[in-house]
Amino acid sequence: MSNFMVVISLVLLSAYVQGLPDGAPASACSDMVPGHLPTIVKGEPPYQINVNGAFYQPGTPLTGSITSPSDHVILGVLLEARSVADPSHLVGEFTSTSEDFKTVCGANHKSAMTHANPNKKNNVTFSWNPPSTTGDDIYFRLTVVESWFPSKYWLNITSQMINRRPEKLKFKSYDA
């Protein structure tokens, strides 16, 4: 009888757990929570966001990477650029850097980057295109799935603040 209960429990549990080996759904764009049963993780996340630059300017892509100094595996990601002034506002567009990733979220489905397959990754590179209009300072926000079952994921990993490069000052010359 106990084997029967274990099987029933696993069937019910698998109905609840939404495995997403081909990327985060649009429903995860706002809260960045994966559709997996949570596992409580404590301490500092073993992942970090490295950005190649402390400033951004329209028309110039910003690149970076997601790494784990302690060699933790990456199975799934959801990466977004958010406004410091309004953290609910997604900023700019991501460009897919390999077949392992795709873009999602926003009206144009490019406001975030997620995994496109269940392959294990040791690091992730990304390319982000700033908005063409004047924008706010931003930061990158990340969710990383380390294992599917048992589910283990890390939420709200953030980068340092990235400042919008100020416009070049234009000086008027006056003839004397």
From TrEMBL:
Residues 6-176 form the Reelin domain. It holds the Pfam family Reeler. It is found in: Secreted. InterPro entries: Ferric-chelate_Red/DefProt, Reeler_dom, Reeler_sf. It comes from the Eukaryota. Keywords: Antibiotic, Antimicrobial, Immunity, Innate immunity, Secreted, Signal. One of its GO terms (biological process) is defense response to bacterium. Belongs to the insect defense protein family. This is Reelin domain-containing protein.
